[in-house]
Amino acid sequence: MTNSPEKAGLWSVRPYRHWLAQDFTSELSTSMLVFTIPLIALPVVGSELAAGGMLSLMLIVSTVVGLPGGTLVDRINRRTALWVRSAAMVVVVSALAAALYGFESSAIAIAVGCVCLGVVTGLFKSSSNILLREIVPRSLFPRAVANNQARDAALELSAAPFAGFLLAVGSFVPFLFIALSHAIAFIATLRIPAALGEVKRSGESFVRDLGFGFRYLWRNPHLILSSLIVALANFALTGAIVTLQLFLGTEGVDPAVIGLLLTATSLGMILGAILAAKTVTRMRVGVILPAALLVVTVAFASMTVLPTTVVALAAPMAVIGFVVPFSNTGLMSWLYMIVPAEFQGRVHSVGGLLSSIAVAVAPLTAGALLTLGSVQLSIALLTLSIVLAIIVALASSTIRRIGRPGDWAVDVSE
Q1: Does domain 210-411 have CATH number 1.20.1250.20?
Q2: Model confidence pLDDT, tens digit, residues 282-310
Q3: What does the buried/exposed string (b/e) look like for 361-374 if buried means 16 or more CB atoms within 10 Å of the residue's CB?
């Protein structure tokens, strides 16, 4: 007698193993790109602002293209979307490596490369998690999301040092590795059965399908409120990290020491993600979400009174990293499970737009707050964003009533 996937676990689901291989290599490549692009651009453009602008260019293009990208993902086989993304990334990244070989690159070449990277990632960025929903049994989906949280935290710890090592060999070397990673992702994607990626076409025009994502959210205000909670939390967390990095940097703290804050956060997130998978299956998400946000609020508040040293700030940052997977696993799993499969790309691209904007605005806000006041005041003001997220979570009766995964079928939005 063979065990069911629910009893045997995620690793018994063969398509999940192939999905994980492609998603891991893709996410590793993304983390390496975020670290590498400003550093390879700096000696070419000669300005820290312009070098950071190259990364911003890629992220902005990805955000803008993500809207029609979500519609595209709802019109083609999701597995096809993944292998097209991997193949396109191999081409674009290989071209960047060629441009960087021998240090003969120009600012225009790097900018064009960033635009191309933004287009490719924006068009297909929602396809991987949407396909995951079709691969794993419903009861195992929260565990898969929690595993992704732990993996992402581990990548935060390892991607930057590894990319830095490759950069020391040559500016083009990280891009060769990234191209190889996407080639592996391409092969892994082809091992996923094509039937799992099939979509139900609406029969409408592309423009009407694009507008459907906005109309769908308008008809389901609890989805708008959920997106608002994610955006408020991401704004505060990103803003706090950048605020502390900028403040400690102006205080002359060594960048490697500042990096310990991110290390503490990532270690907390790995531990939290391990426990979150089981917690979400046993407790109501409507309880977990505001409770986790409340702990984050307390951790933020503690940073307004603690000494502004890396050692003192590492503890609350580790606590924040620990509780974030609980709220993320619960809320994000619920959002993916209650939206019908044929709408996933459009709905999540529109819903995620607010969060993408919040993350993009947060670094600018952090810099502005520091110029206007102390680091303590900056953190205190960012804390208000978390408080507002708690208010939204408690004010929505639908979000308060979110139960355990077995109860989510009653929340399906039409």
Answers
A1: yes
A2: 889 899 999 999 999 999 999 999 988 88
A3: ebbebbeebbeeee
